[in-house]
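Objective 1.3, modelling of assemblies. Example input:
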Amino acid sequence: MVASVAPDLSDPHYRAAIVDLLGAIGYGEISACERLTEDAGRAPSLADKLELLQLANAQFAQVTPILEGLRELGADPYEAMAPFRVPIDTFHEYTAPADWWESLVKAYVGDNLVRDFYREFAVHLDPRTRSLITSTLVEDRSEFIVDRVRAGIRADHLIAGRLALWGRRIMGEALTQTQHVAAERDTLSEVLAGDVIGTLDLASIADIFGRITQRHIERMGQLGLEH
Amino acid sequence: MVASVAPDLSDPHYRAAIVDLLGAIGYGEISACERLTEDAGRAPSLADKLELLQLANAQFAQVTPILEGLRELGADPYEAMAPFRVPIDTFHEYTAPADWWESLVKAYVGDNLVRDFYREFAVHLDPRTRSLITSTLVEDRSEFIVDRVRAGIRADHLIAGRLALWGRRIMGEALTQTQHVAAERDTLSEVLAGDVIGTLDLASIADIFGRITQRHIERMGQLGLEH
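Predicted structure (tokens):
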């Protein structure tokens, strides 16, 4: 396999990796919609419930373009998503919020962390896939979450320490599951870490993770939490 | 209170009833979205899960116009919805599906039953409210549910009897909670049963319930179930 400097969807190896990538994104969005709706059940008010349901629905609205993208590549979207059910469900199982505050922090830092991750890699993909990914994974900086968490901390300083640890745990679990996926999905990791990222040097890869971490820290800061 | 032959939103009594009605519809849609998403967690396949999530999201998409309608009437949407949380949550608690089949039947006959109910009354309301209600509460005859339930019955005839009883229970609980709401929300029931429906004779009211029941029976029949 020769490294593709200009990734091309007509290359079956590259194409298979993109099917994997879109499958992961698609199931991730479906799963996020389900979890956010479940979290909405813990909302202290109807207004808060509605805010979280709106985030859930915004996630779900992105599923259709991803599934269409998969079909355009000749893939069965359900088969493409299937390999990612276990790692993504496991991520959610290990980061199941214990209360409303943890739900809010997860919705803010977890979902945006995932978006950052995909968008950083999308930059190095073919234009069509890049455009599909960047248009569906728009960062959501929900002001209502910032307002609620900051007010919560003002009312009870003790939650800040707990939620700071919670944010670290979300990042840790996201990295753990990403490593599992990388270990199990050879073609995907070969293409992302080899063919595509192989055209980048190690310093560039370090930069990618540096930027993802930096944005995570910024979001934690916006919530009034230390990383 | 004089019976309004032409219901008018500038009449505070009528307006209060419409605020109640839209509050009930709004909370009903939010609640349906949450329950359908919960039910999607029981789907036997990812494709089925997605179908149910699509229904959930279609319900949620109707929430915003209803809340805007409430704001245009000068009402706080959350206050307007609050009185309907208990009856609607109770309805869902008493009709919590025990398995995937019950989820499907509830999504098909329960949600459309509710839509029929509101639409029948909407005919007698002012044009603006009527148009808002009829445009948001579009009957959904999801072919996928019909396919799944019919296939389920072919594979196991025993579920038909159980699901037929389940359909009756959903209708029964819907009527019970409607009666509770009617008993507790004086203005709403006065306007619907007095000012508005008062301009109709008893035979017309019987016709309304006859049509709602008839459509319920038709939907049960489409699923291959006796009423």
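The interface with chain B takes residues 27, 30, 33-34, 37-38, 40-41, 45-47, 49-50, 53, 56-57, 60-61, 63, 78, 81-82, 85 of chain A (CB under 8 Å).
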